[in-house]
Amino acid sequence: MVPDAACIYEAWTAAMDDIADVEGLQSTFVLNTIPKSAASVSKNNGVGNIWDVDDTQSLTILWQLSTNWGTAVNDLRMANWATKFLDYHHRIQGMDLASDFLYMGDAGEFQNPFLGMPLDNVQKMREIRAAYDLQGVFTHLNWGGFKLGAWADSVC
Fold first, then answer.
1. In 10 A of CB 22, how many CB atoms?
2. What's the whole-model pTM score?
């Protein structure tokens, strides 16, 4: 594990002490990478990379929390715990960890993955939506996930 990843992992371990009494608590901490070669392929394969992930360096620390608990009485407490932990560690300075990129598949409901995308790409998605989803099915009728209308329209 690289030193920066170890720092985040140790912080997560310490933060788990704050919620150790939560009934049915199950939590995982996952580290992932995006090698620069993968980002480069996605930028140059004709399909593109809507997130515009930098292909000059590997993203060595993409991390996610997955936390479950047993009763609804802890919902607000756990949401606040996760938000506080993620907000703080996304803003760490001096460790070269901060990035606006949020992988949409792992983002929490309180996060906005569209904020890390280039505005031109968000606009391109809006144009595609306007051309192919005239009734707004994927914005209004599709359950779950991040909707371009619900999140991205407030970005710009």
1. 20
2. 0.64
